Amino acid sequence: MSDSNCIYLLASNEHLIGTASGVMTFSAEDLTDIPLIASYPLGLIDHANYRVGIVAEGDLPEQVDQDALCGLRTMLASVEDETTYTLLSSAAQIVIWHESFKFCPRCAAPLHAHSGELAKVCSSCAHRQYPRISPCIIVLVRKGGQCLLAHASKFAPGRYSALAGFIEAGESAEHAVVREVKEEVGITVKNLTYCFSQSWPFPHSFMLGYMAEYESGDITPDGEEILDADWFSASNLPVLPPKFTIARRLIDRFLVDIGETLPEDSTLFFAAE
Description:
Distance between the termini: 45 Å
Number of helices: 4
Order of helices and strands: EEEEEEEHHEEEEEEHEEEH
Shape: globular
Strand content: 25-35%
């Protein structure tokens, strides 16, 4: 049952409903005849009552053109403000969490959406399960007027980005930066500086962004996660990450720091300065 005071985002089969123009929103009236499997509050948006609703594949509102639907990355490419990014990121992570955690990790009984908070509750032992968040680091290594960018095995051809990796249990973010750089490209770094963070919905990462200075060693990609890496100056940058990413924000910050003019397609929000 939908709440008449809410604005709804919808998801089906783990995917938010939206087009290249952005995520679609629906009123309670739009959902009058559509059963919601579950719905969760999106409480991070001020002055608006958003929820994300889960529906069966065949239960989409009639105004949805299924031929025009697209994936989350395409929707994020149209984002032009931090509020919309937060809305999409939050909703996408909640949808994945809903589909991934259906049974209690303690007693294996079914989990159900909690009525009063963003959680699931066990129908047997009352254990509460909250959305999963996986902390990660991402770091742009600098050497004078150059920065280190890498091509990962999962990237599109020609695209390079900053180095990133998960923080292990018991590890500090700073230790993870040093370890990941050494593991992925074989060099050591120093003078770490924390810059900013970003929630990253692929599927539930929380990125902590750092700058670091090169200390020693030769670039040696690990050949598994990283296929190529090199030093780049402002005049010979490769294909960069999309404007909505924290990686692009770090690169833009580097360009600002060395006195370069940002590209026209630079980050539209999350100001690099």
